[in-house]
Design a protein that fits this description.
It is a single chain. By secondary structure, the chain is an alpha/beta fold. It has 2 domains: about 140 residues, HUPs (Rossmann fold, 3-Layer(aba) Sandwich), CATH 3.40.50.620; about 130 residues, Rossmann fold. About 40% of the residues lie in helices and about 20% in strands. The protein contains 8 helices and 10 strands. β2, α2 and β3 form a beta-alpha-beta unit. The longest helix is centred in the C-terminal third of the chain and has 23 residues. It starts with 5 loop residues before the first strand and ends with a strand.
Length: about 280
């Protein structure tokens, strides 16, 4: 068994429990332990009494909810396999940063897309986006997952010079799942929304050149993973839209990310908000 865990974050919401269950199945698939974390963020001057001689405070409620969320998540995760090693970790601190930091040293960090209620949904939505952008490990944002298996992993490649990390992750996931791998490079011109796009002189030449570059890029991985059936597709259109569409027929969509300064780029933002299933963001090596 690998020593590195898969880390899943929960807040007790249905979305986060779905993410925990996904992470549990992934842990079983990889033979990895599962660490489930929940964060109780106390505002300044909040104090938890935690004894019978004092009335329950707001801080007590926050921490009790955190602990209940952990217990329920652990019970759900255990359904994946009786032999799965599960560790629960109650944490304190700013939610987004604490969840993101929990991914340090992990195989991957798994989060849900939304949380409990309108306000919590905004919080967990911001947590998932922050983690997907800043975590030191791959991050999987789970949304709208079904139990139907497509036996396909998708990966988006924008700049071939920065494709090594997402391709490595995607090939490994496809090999583990005994799935095919769809490699997509999407491109668009400033006028891609108009009829003039079809008349762009550079379009046919670029498409052929991009396909050739992509084919060369995949050669080493295909030799390393000969059992993974690979298709490549160079499509005209916004990359975010193309990858969100791919997510409807894939068990997992993988995209790369570089160091973030202000938040997710337009492609990542589009995919995370419109995907039909789990999306993995993989940091550049």
């Amino acid at each position: 068994m690998t020593a590195k865990p898969i880390v899943a974050a929960t807040d007790g919401s249905a979305e986060s429990l779905r993410a925990v269950q996904w992470a549990a199945r992934e842990a079983v698939l990889r033979g990895a332990p599962l660490r489930i974390v929940a964060v109780g963020e106390l505002l300044p001057r909040m104090t938890a009494h935690r004894d019978v001689d004092n009335p329950e405070t707001v801080a007590d409620v926050i921490l009790d909810n955190r602990d209940r969320a952990l217990a329920e998540a652990a019970a759900r995760a255990a359904e994946a396999d009786p032999g799965l090693l599960i560790d629960t970790d109650p944490l304190d601190g700013p939610i987004a940063q604490t969840v993101t930091d929990a991914g340090s040293g992990a195989l991957m960090l798994v989060v849900g897309h939304r949380g409990i209620g309108a306000f919590a949904a905004m919080i967990l939505g911001s947590v998932s986006r922050y983690a997907a952008t800043h975590a030191p490990c791959p991050v999987v944002v789970v949304r709208e997952e079904t139990m139907a298996l497509h036996r396909q992993v998708g990966v988006g490649i924008g700049d071939p010079d920065h494709g090594e990390a997402p391709l490595t992750f995607a090939f490994e996931e496809a090999a583990l799942r005994k799935a095919s791998l769809a490699v997509v490079h999407a491109w668009h011109t400033p006028h891609s929304g108009s009829s003039r796009t079809s008349d762009t002189p550079a379009a046919p030449g670029y498409q052929a050149e991009a396909d050739s570059v992509l084919a060369g890029l995949l050669e080493d991985w295909q030799r390393k993973y000969p059992d993974v059936t690979v298709t490549r597709d160079v499509v005209r259109g916004h990359p975010g839209r193309a990858l969100a569409g791919l997510s409807a027929r894939a068990d997992l969509v993988v995209i790369g990310r570089r160091a973030a300064h202000h938040g997710p780029g337009t492609v990542m933002h589009a995919v995370l908000n419109h995907a039909h299933g789990p999306v993995a963001t993989v940091p550049s090596a």
